[in-house]
Design brief:
Elements lengths: L1 H14 L4 E3 L1 E3 H4 L4 E10 L2 E5 L4 E6 L6 E2 L4 E5 L2 H36 L5 H33 L2 E3 L4 E6 L6 E2 L4 E6 L4 E8 L3 H6 L3 E4 L4 E14 L4 E8 L9 E7 L4 E2 L5 E3 L2 E8 L2 E6 L9 E2 L7 E3 L12 E3 L1
Parallel strand pairs: 1-23
Antiparallel strand pairs: 2-22, 3-12, 3-16, 4-11, 5-7, 5-10, 6-9, 7-8, 9-11, 12-15, 13-14, 13-16, 14-15, 17-21, 18-19, 19-20
Helix pairs in contact: 3-4
């Protein structure tokens, strides 16, 4: 009887297998984020070579290399004596032209009165009217000449077109300048952006990246993609991209690396297990181990996943556990 009772209880004893002890970790805590990078450089949007716009001897250069200048500040002066003479000459010519016009208009008024009394021919009246119109046109020309002379004289002073730093003094006091002669070089260190060369296959990832950083020699700078130039460099298969600094910019000319995370997090390769010819992970669900296949996973590579970040992954015990097996968390 005793042996018979033991035999009857044996199936129940075999089915009452103890849960397998395992350890788990939250998925979000172990995800790895692949990082892409590209060579990059901080470039100033304005690198200005300031030059003369008129002929003349450079009379003064009022700034030195390294000086910070503000927009509108006078930086250099060209000898303005000959240009002031031209202004005076144009003003005198205008005054003479105005007097001539006044005389011509007076003659026209007299001719009209005489015409009313038929003391002057129509031809003579027409001649006086034409003369007055000619004098008016001449006065307009002289006014334009005075405006031109004044504009030229205003170019005797050379002012900063923007806030910048003087980085080079090209000409010297006493040099004879002509239009286009370079005098100073200014660098705009307030408007700086990043230029980077990005591989063709990495472009989509960069455009979708939530965070991009420019890593220089001393620190990291957050940046945001502004544009992708629509020109593929054939030899290296790269595109030039431009990015704006979202905080303090790096100094112009600083070289570094552009870094960004690609897509969502990935499960580390060492947490993958193989079951039924495929790779996946074991997760904890209601006290049991459940195998979650990852169809795109490759051995030795981090795997993309659509699991929720709060999913509990089985870590210790993942190689011994089977799908559906009861487990207990240490």
């Amino acid at each position: 009887m005793f042996i018979t009772g033991v035999l009857l209880l044996l199936p129940e004893l075999v089915g009452a297998e103890s849960p397998l002890p395992v350890t788990t970790v939250e998925l979000e805590a172990v995800l790895v984020h692949p990082v892409r990078e590209a060579p990059a450089e901080a470039v100033a949007l304005n690198d200005t070579r300031l030059g003369a716009e008129i002929n003349g001897v450079i009379a003064a250069i009022d700034v030195a290399v390294g000086d910070r200048v503000e927009r509108g500040q006078v930086l250099a002066r060209v000898d303005c004596t000959p240009h002031r003479i031209e202004v005076a000459r144009a003003r005198a010519a205008l005054d003479a032209g105005r007097a001539t016009l006044e005389f011509s208009e007076l003659q026209l008024d007299n001719a009209r009165r005489l015409s009313e009394r038929r003391s002057i021919s129509q031809e003579e009246l027409d001649k006086r009217e034409a003369d007055a119109r000619t004098r008016k046109a001449e006065l307009d020309r002289l006014q334009a000449a005075l405006d031109a002379a004044g504009y030229t004289a205003s170019k005797c002073t050379i002012a900063a077109p923007l806030n910048a730093v003087v980085i080079e003094r090209i000409a010297s006091v006493g040099d004879y300048a002509v239009p286009g002669t370079q005098i100073l070089r200014l660098l705009d260190d307030e408007n700086v952006e990043v230029s980077a060369k990005v591989q063709e296959q990495d472009l989509d990832g960069l455009e979708a990246a939530a965070e991009v950083r420019f890593t220089g020699r001393l620190r990291d700078h957050p940046v945001r993609l502004r544009t992708v130039l629509p020109l593929l460099e054939r030899r290296l298969r790269t595109y030039e991209v431009r990015l704006r600094f979202t905080a303090e910019p790096a100094p112009p000319g600083a070289a570094g690396r552009l870094r960004w995370r690609v897509g969502g997090g990935r499960i580390p390769a060492d947490l993958l297990v193989q079951r039924d010819g495929g790779l996946g992970v074991f997760v904890l669900a209601d006290g049991h181990a459940r195998f979650q296949p990852l169809p795109e996973a490759r051995a030795g590579h981090p795997a993309a996943t659509g699991l929720a970040p709060t999913t509990r992954l089985i870590v210790d015990g993942r190689f011994r556990v089977e799908d559906g097996q009861a487990v207990t968390v240490d």
